[in-house]
Batch of 4 targets.
Target 1
Amino acid sequence: MPRTAAGLSAAVRTSEAELIDRARRRDEAALREIMQANNRRLYRLARGILRSDSEAEDVVQETYIRAFTHLDDFLGASALSTWLSRIAINEALGRARGRRPQVELGSLPEATLEAQIIQFPLSSAATDPEKSMAQREIQRVVEYAIDELPDVYRMVFVARVMEGMSMEETAELLGIKPETVKTRLHRGRTMLRENVEKKIGPVLMDAFPFAGQRCERLTEAVLARLGVG
């Protein structure tokens, strides 16, 4: 007989609990599995606050170090991914405060901040030069449009659109009401020009990638700091 939704949810919780238990014992395979499952989300959330590739990578690494050395503090009230995301957001906000005056994310002023255009991390050279050039241009437009959004809208946009989180997940993660998430997402979208909005869809999943060598490098760095492997 097929499993019910409740049964599947319980199975997922059991699987995650077993994974966390292994991670507490510094099981290398468990640590790798957790990092590989969460690297991209944590990177995108951190970058959504800091708008810097290198700083976002630092935040992800520090997030794992803090989490893996304090796994006993994780009580399972939320998903492990949510707990890790909150640590990453707090770490990124702390770094942002060190760069400029800033209050909590939920009460940031609704004013457009100065955009910072960063070098977009591209994959290996494509076999089609024209297609590669077009993709780079679209990626540049996507990155610029996202970076120039005010912080409160950019974080909702990253969580809802880029990471595909639900309204409820985003609200829980950012500590705001679901209605606020909906309003901020709508207002954020209206700030993007129509022609940019049309270009976002096809390439969105390739925006701010965190895979391959970058993902593996960060994973190995965290394991080394933990003395595992």
Target 2
Amino acid sequence: MTQQHPTLGGLLRALRARNGWTLKEMSQRCGIPLSTLSKVENDRLTLTYDKLLQISQRLNIRMSELFAEDSNSPEPPVTARRSIGRIEDAVRVTTPNYDYFYLCPELRRKRMIPVVTRVRAKSIEEFGDLVHHSGEEYIHVLEGRAEVHTEFYDPIVLEAGQSVYIDSNMGHAYIAADGCEEVVLLGVCSSADEQLMESLMHMHGETAKTGTR
């Protein structure tokens, strides 16, 4: 029988059970309405990035702990993990430069982070400071033309179907190339840091907002 991966509702339910809280107590502690939590735990509703951030802040835990494996559980020799990446299930983060859609959010301790990104910035001046974070990343242009700026190389323009692989510690930025209004990228970020997804999300800072597709 195929093992079912935990849903966000199951993860929150397990977190509540580990702390011995009732649904009402959990609601009071994290500031999420009881009816909303009930729907999430029963997989009838999901939570946006800002609500997940609110839970982590109110409960004084790292956001990654909401998706953390039980440390008491032995690591299985074969996980046979699988997750279908759907935009409607993605965790969306909107910043002045990008709309990020973090795919397969229910998979925990991922070794790579898949992200679909809509590019908003149309000039490096508009973009601002280059971005740095741990690990490496692969970017493939799905739609439009992307201008890639990196700390140690001259800018390049990638057409749809082209890609680039970079060291993410190097400053980098992706903007829409001249004459291009819409750019969509598929990115895969990888790092030895098990908290990579949390690091990427916190990197967005207070400018990040969430919304629906």
Target 3
Amino acid sequence: MKRLAILLAAPLLLGAAKPVLVPDVSARSIEIRYSFNGAQLLLFGAILYPGGRAPTKPLDIAVVVKGPVEPILVREKQQIAGIWMNADSHRFRSAPSFYAIASSRPVRDLVDERTAAIYELGLRDLQLSPGGGAQPDKERRFEAGLLDLRKRQRLYAEDPKGVEISAHVLYRARINIPSQVPVGTYTAETFLIDNGRVVAAATREIEIGKSGFERFIAVAAQRHAFLYGLAAVLLSLGLGWFAAWLFARRA
């Protein structure tokens, strides 16, 4: 039966006008526990060419891992009278909570600006959806500030030589997942690029969630917000009272 399926699929593959990507990831789910200090995600796969023959000129690969989009408020600090204070702010309606791209060559060597913007290939081409109402120069300033902040938090990253391609067929890339990564459903997108055009694309999903005691706390905070807040206040008061009692006893 398996041999029959392969024989039936072969004519379809041979008659395909464009290459086909067969991607996969090393982990379809990542669990965050108390000891979680980050992870490394391996994206790998193969390129199936029409007729089964690889071209003489190698193609390029770019892989993008995105986290769930979320609204975010960015605050700008300035030093006023010797004190750092929030001087201005700007809201983005949606921004990826995590973004990492790896490519076989720098993205600007692979595609033009229009193609990079369509597929969001690179940090400068992310669609951040600003809240509106602000002057263009202010929006650009806060976009640059958001990108810089998330790069320092290791939530945004670019690796222009992060994809290895073997024999024009097999590829692999490694994406680092930091310890403070948000939970949710992530997408791992793979793009096959030839002469500045995206000729094939494929997507896989990755679930990142909390488990164990961390999951219990997160679920409790969502389902019983009032009781969770009350318990947090009582715990803080109890710890404060215990610390005061301990110092008074030692005095």
Target 4
Amino acid sequence: MKVLVLEDEKPIRDLLRINLKRAGLDVVEAATGEEALTIAGEHRNIDIAIVDLMLPGISGFQVCDELRRQFPRLGIIMLTAKSQEVDKVMGLEAGADDYVVKPFSPVELTARVRALYRRMYPEEAPLPQNHIELAPFTLLLDERKLLKNSIDIPLTPTEYSIVKLLMEQPGKAVNRDEILTSVWGQYFMGELKIVDVNISRIRQKIGQEVSGPQYLETVWGFGYLWRVQPC
């Protein structure tokens, strides 16, 4: 696993590098957003980026947004010194898969990195079919891609996991707690809001509008379901 660490404070960056390498991960570092984007473009084989929110120059939000645009399937974890919900939501809306609030335990952060990587590359049992067809969508399980009318819709690793969970159970309402546990793991310490933010991002990507077909439907007070559309 190759990890990009973007952190402007050298002591924290050194701490992250030491602990991640000790865990057996390949680490590249950047002190500014501009440097991180350059490194990501040069390496192009980075699995996960750890991005600090408060940076000199371009912000962590901007970096996250640009990384997501260039590398749709890159895993991104946001580091923030703020605990307000609005900062977490903004990070998630910028494309982050997860967030960790400073001060944090290096052991916890390493565990979050490994958990995100497992979501990106799950060790799944062989399936009798390698795709799920729910017109106009096709979910390619082997390639971890979502197609709409044969057009690729780039999803983050977390978004793909949510779509897969719901498309495997079409027409069934899935509780938000179940989504959180299935996608982020039973020991995830974050808030349910992370589910709603990712659902919102998925809706934008699949082109769901209020007046159009409700593919991804909200079950108020409970969770979400993938609606089977009539032929």
